Amino acid sequence: MTSVSLVGPGEGPIVLDVPAPAAPVRVPTNRRYLMCPPEHFTVEYSINPWMDPSRPVSTELAMRQWTALKETYERLGHRVETIEAQPGLPDMVFSANSGTVVDGKVLGARFRAPQRAAEADHFRRWFLDNGYRDVVMPECTNEAEGDFTWTGRYLLAGTGFRTDPRAHAEAQEVLGVPVVSLQLTDPRYYHLDVALFVLDDDLIAYYPDAFSPGSRSVLRRLFPDAVIATEADAACLGLNAVSDGRHVVLPVEATHLAEQVARRGFEPVFVDISELRKSGGGPKCCTMEIRD
């Protein structure tokens, strides 16, 4: 065994024991992200099993955690754009749910929950104000990168709780990429991005028990070398992670998952998202990737 010192959100490094054999050399690529500060974050309604309006929520702490996440991306060399938070939209911080961008084409969102519906138009206007003209707002319910995950080859598309399965065909037509439909079955993992994330080209991590038997078979065929997450990995929203091809930004509690990705040659980078998790969100939920 060899000890690997990783970046943690608090004082001092987090040390993991990783087997000594050489892993593949991973090369990061610079990314561009769109984020929204949680200036109005709270939990005042419940639209997923994580949300409990009776629990205390600190907007100040959520803001500190979000700022640390943003600064982590910038320290890793990524470009972060921001959109102005709007009063009355406490979940707007979860920008990943409001757009899917592939090759400069933008497919907007249509939320299932009426409490979030107004978010979609704010993001639509952001794209238009920033020079995007190929912006399509969907006819079918589609919660964007919450349920759409671009691998570089396929658009993995989740359904079962939020996104209408008909939105998968709509995404294929608008974005012009092949779509693979996946059925989610566990209400705790109501979006694809809390059950699966892309590490690098043709390599994903996922929690099998979040998916139907047929979808698990599809994932095994497409990604036979995938990192398989445990129940504990999923339960701390460890799979709501962001990879740039080398660095993997994930919740500080996801130590087992971090060990697994480190064995594959990636560098885990821990962040604390405990307050944002009260609304069922983590690093990826706060991060829309803009792929021009």
From TrEMBL:
InterPro entries: DDAH-like. The active site is at residues 191, 285. It comes from the Bacteria. Gene3D superfamilies: L-arginine/glycine Amidinotransferase, Chain A (3.75.10.10). Keywords: Hydrolase, Transferase. The keyword Hydrolase applies. One of its GO terms (biological process) is citrulline metabolic process. The keyword Repeat does not apply. GO terms for molecular function: amino acid binding; dimethylargininase activity; transferase activity. Belongs to the DDAH family. NCBIfam families: DiMArgaseDdahMtb (NF045659). This is Amidinotransferase. It comes from Saccharothrix syringae (Nocardiopsis syringae).
